Input
Amino acid sequence: MFKRILLATDGSPAVERIVLYAGHLARVEGAELVVVHAYELPPAYATVEGFEQLQESYQRLARALVDDVVRQLREDGAQALGEVRTGPAAVAILAAAADHDSDLIVMGTRGHGSVQEMIGSVSAQVLRFARCPVLQVQ
Output
């Protein structure tokens, strides 16, 4: 049913549960997992001295985050690759899903009070505009 599953990660502690769900589903389906993390640098800092170092730090941290999830998935027997994108998270996730021809997006939610807080603004945008099913794990 699923050939390629996109797993969106933000590096939060909830990612561990999301990785378990996505990894299990990928193994059962024989699907490839694409782990994506997106970050956006504050544009106000673009002219500040040291911006390039900040950008490099963000990139290194994002790459380490993705590599850690990919390593964990591979150790558990899933096929996985990782990708870091820059820009607004929802836009990056949707673009990655389209670029990789994903059959499913797996991502976390935020469990607070209101509906917007409960599913998170990024989750809400992805759910609204995705061209494939979205599995939200809380």
In short: The helical segments are 15-29, 51-75, 89-99, 115-119, 121-129. DSSP finds five helices and five strands in the chain.
